[in-house]
Amino acid sequence: RRGKTPEQMPGRLGRALGWAEAALASRGSSMIILARFIPGGRTAITFGAGYVRYDRPRFVASTVAAAVIWAVYAAVIGYVGGEVFEEHWWAGLGLGLAISFAVTGLIELYRKLTGRGTSITDAKAALLERRRLEAEAAGSGDEVG
């Protein structure tokens, strides 16, 4: 691993990258897909995934899925919204936001009911513990082989 770990970085950037690393460890693909729907989210999650060295094949697959989902969503909303909400654009905006929140809520409900994944807080604690153990092993002079 090159560079500083997120917890070694000072201030808000270090805290944000620490949270992003834990979020990607616990939620991975769903974070990448949902970030596509948040203004600036795609850029932020891409930067964070690169910095914390998120698994490249998983990132590519998640990004492709996110692009397809987003394109279909945007096309349907644009087509239907243009017809239905021609005179009341604000109602279309509200419906779009409601759908986004509903999809996010359903994903989280599914995760909770199936027990899949861990919380971001638990993932962050596990990452910090793994780094502590790696540092101890590196510092002890023990060699495997």
Q: How is this structure best described in words?
A:
This protein is mainly alpha-helical and about 140 residues long. The protein has helices at about 10-35, 40-50, 55-85, 90-115, 120-140. The longest helix is centred in the middle third of the chain and has 29 residues, at about 55-85. The two termini are about 20 Å apart. The model has no long low-confidence stretch (mean pLDDT about 80).
What portion of residues is helical? Answer: over 70%
Gap from first CA to last CA = 21 Å
The general outline is elongated
The overall average pLDDT, rounded, is 80
Oligomer description: single chain
> Could you describe the largest sheet, including whether it forms a barrel?
none
Annotation field: number of helices: 5
Number of strands: 0
Descriptive labels:
single chain; 5 helices; mainly alpha
Helix and strand topology:
Layout (H helix, E strand, L loop, with lengths): L10 H25 L5 H11 L4 H29 L4 H26 L5 H21 L5
Helix pairs in contact: 1-2, 1-3, 1-5
Short description:
With 145 residues, this protein is mainly alpha-helical.
